UniProtKB/TrEMBL annotation:
Species assigned in the record: Actinomyces gaoshouyii
Matches recorded under Pfam families: DUF4191
Name of the featured protein: DUF4191 domain-containing protein
Keyword annotations: Membrane, Transmembrane, Transmembrane helix
Biased composition (Basic and acidic residues): 226-240
Amino acid sequence: MSTARSTQPKKKRRLAAYAQNLKDAYTISRRTYPWIGWALIGTAAASILLSIAIALGTGMAVWYWVILGIMLAFLLDMILLSWTVRRASYSQIEGVPGAAKAVLDQVGRGWYLEEQPVAINPKTQDVIWRLVGRPGIVLVVEGPTGRTQRLVTDERKKINRILSTVPLHVINVGTDEGQVRLGELSAALRKLPTKPTRLTNSEISQVSKRLSSLGTKGLPIPKGIDPSKVRPDRRALRGR
């Protein structure tokens, strides 16, 4: 009896946490996409009506297809909510110094990301993040392209001194012409060329260790740049 009683509060807490995550995801999405509520209702209604139409057209049990329609409606709504909450979260922090770290933390396997920025301009709060993956070394730059050229040039020189044969890519994140928008950063990383050079897992590890010798650890972060404060809720981003 004690075991059964102890599991009930846990289930209730999990359900409450799940419901709260859905509410948070909806709230975040609605700030950027006011139409999300109507879209969720419309998607659910269309799924159920479609299931009824199929049941009537095939002569099968209506109740069976309605249940399938409800399940499909829930699935489609979760996909839609997950899609909007991710883009809404990024749009709401776009332009905040250090915001690119929120996206880079989500890039997944195959990448090694420095936890701290490798270069910062304390006056303008321009930032450079560095990561290593299959395409090679990638510098993700936050700030106007013209203003950050000096930072990028200095970082290129440091890297070329010890890893001149490893491909080096630069992605400028921002809203100016020619820059990559925050919400498109993950896609830009996936599109980086891996030919003729494609790093293996062991090579990624070796390159990362070599880069750590550049002495960027402990680089002070100016006031106003705190990546931990601009990261969107990861559970909400996953639609949980």
